[in-house]
Amino acid sequence: MNYFVSKDSVVRRIWGSGDTILFIFAGSSAEFALNKAVDWLYFTGRLPAAPLARLFSTVAYARRIVFSEEAAALATIDTMATIHAGVEAKRGRSIPDWAYRDVLFMLIDYSIRAFEVLERELSVEEKTEVFEVFHRVGSRMGVTGLPTTYQQWQVMREEHLQQDLEKSHYTTDLYRQYKKHLGGVRYLLLVEAQKMVVPDKIKQLLGLGPLQLLSPVLAVYKLSRKLRMDWLLKAVILPRAYLKEIKDLDRRPVL
C-alpha cells in the first residue's frame, strides 16, 4: 500500500506524539496572533470563539494526511482546499498566497522545533523530510511561490518572519481568548511553551521574556514519561474537557 508519508519517516514520529503536537500548537498560536492575515481567522469566528477546538480540528486534518494512504491523504488535502475556497467565496476575496505559505512554513518550522525541544536535534536529511511532506501538501492545494528545497525554505521562512508579522488589536484579543479558555495557570504554561519554540522575531514582537516556569515542569514531565506516569501530570495541567482529545493525540489514527 502506498502511503502519503512513508512508515519510517520522522514526520510520522513527530505527528504521532501528543507532546510534540502540543508544542507545535504553542508555537503556532503565538505566530497566528501576529500574522497580518489573522483577520481571515476572525472572519469565520472559529479561532477566537474556540481556540482549543480549532486546534484539534486542524490537528485531525494534519494527522489524517500524515498517516493516510496516498489517495485518502490527497482527498483530505482537497477537502481543506474546498473549505478555504468556501470562506473566500463568503468574504468575496481571496486569501493571499503568502498567507497560505505562512501556514505551511509554520507547520514545517514548529514540527522541527517542537521535536528538538522534546526529543533530540534533527539531521538536515530529517528536516528535509519534514519540508518535503508539507511542500507536497501546499502543491496539492495549488499554493504558488513555494520554495523547492529545504535550503530555499530557510531563506523564505526568515523573509516571511520579517515581512508578514505585526502586533495588532487581533494579537491582544487572541491572547485574551487563550487566557479565557485555558485559565490563568494553563495560560502561563502556554506562554512558557511558546518561549521554548518560537523564533526570536516572535519573542521580540510579543515581548516574551526569559523562561521562568516551564523548564523545571518539562524536566519533571520527561521523568514522569519514563515512569509511565505522564498522564497524572497531564490531568493536572491540561483542561479536563479536552483530556480525551489530548490522549487521542498519542494514538495513530485508524484509517
Classify the oligomer.
Answer: single chain
Q: Which shape, going by the Cα principal axes?
A: globular
Share of helix, binned: over 70%
Number of helices: 15
Mean pLDDT: 84
Largest sheet, strands/sense/barrel: none
Run of helices and strands: HHHHHHHHHHHHHHH
Strand content: under 5%
For the termini, the CA-CA separation is 13 Å
Task: Provide the low-confidence segments as ranges.
Answer: none
Number of domains: 1
Structural class: mainly alpha
| Rg result | 18 Å
Give the number of DSSP strands: 0
Structure description:
The protein contains 15 helices and no strands. The chain has one domain. 74% of the residues lie in helices and 0% in strands. The relative contact order is 0.16. Helix 2 (18-34) packs across helix 7, helix 5 runs antiparallel to helix 6 and helix 10 (169-182) packs across helix 11.
Summarize the structure.
The chain is mostly helical and 255 residues long. Helix content is 74%, strand content 0%.
Notable traits:
255 residues; mainly alpha; 15 helices; 74% helix; globular
Task: Reconstruct the topology from this structure.
Layout: H1 10-15, H2 18-34, H3 39-44, H4 46-49, H5 51-67, H6 70-91, H7 97-118, H8 124-141, H9 150-163, H10 169-182, H11 184-197, H12 200-206, H13 214-226, H14 230-237, H15 243-248
Helix pairs in contact: 2-7, 2-10, 2-11, 5-6, 7-8, 10-11, 13-14
